[in-house]
Amino acid sequence: MRLGPWRLALLLSVSLAACSSSSNSDVAEAGAIDAPIPEAASDAGPSDSVGEAIADSSSLDAPPTEVSASPCSDLPAAGTWESITPPGVSVTDAIVVDPFDASLVWVGTKDHGIFRSKGCGAPGTWVHVNTGTNGEKLDHGEPISVIADPKNAGVLYSTSFYGASGLWKSTNAGVDWTALFPPESEVAKVVEYNLVNSIGMDAHDTAHLVVSMHAHCAAPYGPVCIADSRDGGATWHIIHVPLPGVTDWIAGAGVFLLDVDSWLFSTYSNGLWLTDDAGSTWKNVTPAGATGSTSGKTIVVPFLPSAGGRYHLASMEGILSSVDGRAWSLLPASGGRSVGLAEGNGHIFSSDQWAPNYHVADDTASATWTEIAKPTTLASDQGAPYLAYDAPHHILYSSNWAGGLWRTIRP
Predict the structure, then answer these.
(1) Is 322 in a helix, a strand, or coil?
(2) CA nearest neighbour of 284 among 25, 67, 62, 76
(3) How many Cβ atoms sit within 10 Å of the Cβ of residue 372?
């Protein structure tokens, strides 16, 4: 499996809700439907006022881009947390380090759209970017899952949670946006409220996307379904996920793509599930001591093993680890309840969504987890559902919803 240096500069972040029921093992069968997506209602051309270079989206088989690192000034002292919330923003959501230049950082915000910093998030460097076609629609709701294509500069995907809803795509660094699930699409008709929870991307073919839902899916695909695209969101294949004992939708769920046909479907408390046939059948691979994974929408980079050769997921019981993505174990004493997860420079970072608790460990199988001091002004309930790590600059980012956005230097 390919593991390029860009992986170390991408961040792992994001938010969730609770789940229901308990999980059982065994293999379950699923159904599907092909659903082409109509062209966007607007044919207005891109505004391209941001100025990032846009690569040809057909270069899907190119290796991951080597991440560059433009210099960043005014960084905080090592170990000191600095508040870097964009001005006028009260709630921050998904945070992403750009895969082409680690000094470029994106953050989704509640009812204020998407902001970009070209200075490692420093105060005074944030710019509101979704100003072009359909940009105002991203200003309503929350971008709880945002992902940047690591092979095609300027290509972004975003949710709009309880706002415009559906799934959105930009090809010019967040200025203009196209609805991938417009009201007339099959996905919008099947998924209640057209409510998308998370975006998964195949590291080996970034035009391959699988999204999970935060609402009930209509028969015959419900109550739990996902949607699979092999062409960057132009067409979609709806797939039923048959979870034993589950009679309603699953909050906080997400899909992680190991390869073209092998995917993981994560839930908080209804297990971690594996398919090796693109969703036709599923197997419960929840490790002993865990109830599933909380990483659903908080991991917003293509899913790859760490530099140490292991995959990681957060869970209510601690950190899950796997050498192949198929057989999982719960790491002992790995910080307890976790949602945020980031890795880079030989470290793994975790955080709790419901309390400002942070932990770090070396990227080894037997690492000892130690606590990281929290920002002193955070309230006791302002945890961090999203973490991201900029390896070239050694910056750990923390998005804490109403607690705002923070950064600290962690060599």
Answers:
(1) strand
(2) 25
(3) 19
Q: Which helix (H) or strand (E) holds 186?
A: helix 186-190
- What amino acid is encoded at 156 in this protein? L
- Distance (Å, whole) CA 330 – CA 324: 14
What CA–CA distance (Å, rounded) separates 294 from 316? 7
User: Please, how many CA atoms are within 13 Å of residue 302, restricted to the half-sphere of its CB?
Assistant: 28
> What's the predicted TM-score (pTM) here?
0.86
User: What CATH topology corresponds to 6-409?
Assistant: Methylamine Dehydrogenase; Chain H (2.130.10)
Q: What is the mean pLDDT of each run of 10 residues along the chain (411 residues)?
A: 38 35 44 39 35 36 63 95 98 98 98 98 98 97 97 97 96 98 98 98 98 98 98 98 96 97 98 98 98 96 96 98 98 97 96 98 90 97 98 98 98 85
Locate the DSSP E strands across 263-339.
Answer: 263-266, 272-275, 281-284, 311-315, 318-322, 329-330
* Residue 2: CB atoms within 10 Å: 9
Q: Which residues face 236 on adjacent strands?
A: 35
Q: Who contacts 242 (Cβ-Cβ below 8 Å, separation ≥6)?
A: 28, 29, 30, 224, 282
Question: In this predicted structure, what is the pLDDT of residue 65?
Answer: 52
- Planar angle of CA 152, 153, 156, nearest 5 degrees: 85
**What is each CA distance from 356 to 31, 132, 255, in whole angstroms?**
41, 36, 26
